[in-house]
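The methods section describes the discrete structure representation at length, but only in general terms. Since the whole study asks how a given chain folds, the encoding of that fold should be made plain. An entry of this sort, consisting of the sequence and the corresponding backbone structure tokens, reads as follows:

. . .
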Amino acid sequence: MQRPEELTRFADQFAALGAEPRLRIVRLLLAAHPEGMVVGDIQNELGMAGSTLSHHLDKLKNEELVEVRRDRQFLWYRANTEALTQLLGFLWAECCTRNAVISTKEILQWKPASSGKT
């Protein structure tokens, strides 16, 4: 049984990931794990305005989905894999272990659909 404060935290984290730009940021940072990326490289990769990127990074940081460290004049961001593991574990515990509504095999074989964009 989840404590109410855990449910609130997970709901807030899912809400943060519910914005397409933030989901793109987290996926990019997961691909760069464990080193992470500097803000300028994230901006170049995603083609996002600096102020917009800063807003999204702050939201992800506030929800503890990303971590930031300063290295001289650079800010390095990386995915908080511990928080993401807990978030995925929350879903996994219900759908895939307790009542097996989704098989583990289906999840492990999932691949993103092609966007069809060229």
